[in-house]
Amino acid sequence: MKKILHFNIPNGFSPNDDGLNDIFLPKGLGIDPESFEMWIFDRWGNMIYYTDDLYKGWDGRANYGTDISQQDTYVWKIKCKNNRGNNLSYIGHISIIK
User: Fold this and answer.
1) So what's the pLDDT on residue 1?
2) Cα–Cα distance between 56 and 78 in angstroms, integer?
3) How far is Cα 39 from Cα 77, in angstroms, rounded to an integer?
4) What is the rounded distance in angstroms from the CA atom of residue 60 to the CA atom of residue 48?
5) Model confidence at 2: pLDDT above 60
6) Cα–Cα distance between 90 and 59 in angstroms, integer?
7) How far apart are CA 23 and CA 59, in angstroms?
8) Biggest alpha carbon distance in the chain?
9) Tell me, what DSSP letter sits at residue 22?
10) DSSP codes joined into one string, 32-91
11) Which of 25, 52, 80, 96 has a Cα-to-Cα distance from 33 of 20 to 30 A?
């Protein structure tokens, strides 16, 4: 029996290196890891982060910089396939809380 796709996507995180909620990392069941892509955009629509690794979340840094992005709300987009081969696309918001 194949698992049904289920996503748990947080709406905020605090990347302050305290070991709690430091990474924005959607988790789910029934996701084909070979098809996963995630983009993060700032309020002006500039892409500031991209990954195609289901297990690598966003650490709050823009463009692989050294400083955490400012406290703000960002847009994420995820494209993937479930384990039945169906194409899926999701869009939402994530807030950095300092």
Assistant:
1) 43
2) 13
3) 5
4) 9
5) no
6) 20
7) 5
8) 45
9) -
10) -TTT-EEEEE-TTS-EEEEE--TT--B-SBSTT-SSBPPS-EEEEEEEEEBTT--EEEEE
11) 96
**66 Cβ contact list (under 8 Å, min separation 6):** none
As given in the structure block, the two tokens for residue 87 are 């194409």
The DSSP annotation for 56-67 comes to --B-SBSTT-SS
Report d(CA 42, CA 33) in Å as an integer: 25
* Contact criterion met (CB below 8 Å) for 94 and 11: yes
Q: Which of 23-32, 49-58, 79-88 has the highest mean pLDDT?
A: 49-58
* Spatial distance between the Cα atoms of 9 and 94, rounded to a whole number of angstroms: 9
Q: Kindly report, residue by residue over 43-76, the tens digit of the pLDDT.
A: 999 999 999 999 999 999 998 788 889 999 999 9
Q: Residue 40 and residue 94: Cα distance in Å, rounded?
A: 9
Q: What count of other Cβ atoms lies within 10 Å of the Cβ of residue 98?
A: 11
Q: Percentage of residues in the chain with pLDDT exceeding 70?
A: 95
